[in-house]
Amino acid sequence: MKPLKIFVVDDDPIQLEMITDHLGKFKNFTFQTFATGEKLLEKISEKPDIIILDYNLDTVDKNAMEGVDVLQEIKKIDDSIEVIMYSGQDNIEVAVETMRFGAFDYVTKTPSAFHRMENIIHRILKFRELRSDAKRYKLMVQMAGYAIVIAVALTIILKLMGIQVFGWVN
Question: In the beta sheet, which residues pair with residue 54?
Answer without folding.
Answer: 86
